[in-house]
Amino acid sequence: MASLTETAYYARKTIHYGILALVFLIVGKIVLNLAIDIYRKINPPPPPPPTVGFGKLPAIEFPSKDRPRLTLKLETISDALPEFDDQTKVYLMPVALPNLLGLERATQVAAKLGFLFEPVAQSNRLFEFNKASPVPSRLEYDIITGNFLLHVAWFNDPDFLKQKFLPSEPQAIAEAKGYLRTAELLAEGLAESDVTVTPLKAKGIELERAVSLSEADFIQIDLFRQPLEADKPNITPVKTEGVVRVIISGSREQGERVIYTKYDYYPVNAAGFETYPLKTTQAAWEELMNGSGYIVSSDKNEGQATVRSVKLGYFDAYEPQNYFQPVYIFEGDDNFTAVVPAIDPVWIQ
User: Fold this and answer.
1) Residue 6: what pLDDT?
2) How far is CA 347 from CA 37, 42, 56, 90, in A?
3) Which of 66-80, 221-235, 266-280, 322-336 has the lowest average pLDDT?
4) Cβ-contact 201, 226 below 8 angstroms
5) pLDDT digit string (tens) for 91-143?
6) Which residues lie closer than 8 Å to 331 by C-beta, 6 or more apart?
7) Which parts of the chain are beta strand (E)?
8) C-alpha triplet 110, 113, 115: angle, nearest 5°
9) How many Cβ atoms sit within 10 Å of the Cβ of residue 100?
């Protein structure tokens, strides 16, 4: 029979080795989990294949305009084209269809904007509202898309420009959004959108950019759709023109405060998307050099354009499209910006 001393000795040994074993298991599990995490980061599992649930997509419809005669040169920081994921999302843009409530909706919006008389039909979808007071004004409304153009003939009043109650930039943004909200036109994608503010001055009956707000007669607010994905910017056909443009005057009189509104916003179903394979940036670059794609802006009409960066974003058209599709955005010197459709052409009609 073991003595009490031997029993205590072996008990201490058992506890000692048991603690060591427990520590080994804990440390081993931590090291194993860390190794697995590092391996997964170095060798991530491949993404699921593109869903392509919309089938073949219609080609993006770019505006028609003369293309600058430019020779393109690539000079990125790395002297190479960036690489992106091999697939991305395409979002559904609900198609507006003719319905019996279109004209009723147009009349309601027009009334909220100060147009109370019955419209004149310009076509089966375009209706024109007019008013003569306080300044001749017209509202052209598309009853299918809900988009419209509002003009106030401020130049008919020789004293109009004497009124100089222009808001500050933050006030102008808040005022433009409040104006849209009153007419129930401030969609979710516009409420927190990117905004640019431009001071304008009158030159005859035309408007041009003013050097500063202190020299301005009007202030222009452009609202751009809030990006659906933080790392993928939206780009419009005119780089400086949002999907909604509002111009505010120095008048405080109702019916004279907003002298211009252009509303070209189309809703996007953020939850209704499918994934599609992308062409490579190299393929997009070659297409651009060969005359494809769309030149959004360039201060040059000929000569060399140097491209400094390439992004993946979405093209936000002023005309209705069935899908919100990705594009590669090429930007460079002299205000050069161009876009090329990003979807693999195998999936374009």
Assistant:
1) 67
2) 36, 31, 5, 12
3) 66-80
4) no
5) 999 888 888 789 999 999 999 999 999 999 999 999 999 999 999 999 999 99
6) 307, 308, 309, 310, 311, 337
7) 69-74, 87-92, 120-121, 126-131, 137-142, 148-152, 194-203, 206-209, 218-224, 234-235, 244-249, 258-263, 269-277, 294-297, 302-315, 323-324, 326-332, 337-341
8) 55
9) 6
Per-residue tokens: 29: 């599990």
Query: CATH for 69-93+270-347?
Result: 2.40.128
Which of 88, 87, 107, 105 has its CA nearest to residue 96?
105
The pLDDT assigned to 9 comes to 67
Q: What one-character DSSP code corresponds to residue 78?
A: T
Query: What's the rounded Cα separation, in Å, for the pair 198 and 195?
Result: 10
Length of the chain: 349
Q: What's the CA gap between 59 and 33, in Å, rounded?
A: 47
Domain residue spans of the chain: 1-45, 69-93+270-347, 102-265
Q: Give all strands (DSSP E) within 204-293, no chain letters.
A: 206-209, 218-224, 234-235, 244-249, 258-263, 269-277
Question: Are the C-beta atoms of 152 and 260 separated by less than 8 Å?
Answer: yes
pLDDT digits (tens, 9 = 90+) for 55-100: 999 999 999 988 999 999 999 999 899 999 999 999 999 888 888 7
pLDDT digits (tens, 9 = 90+) for 25-60: 788 788 888 877 787 777 777 778 999 999 999 999
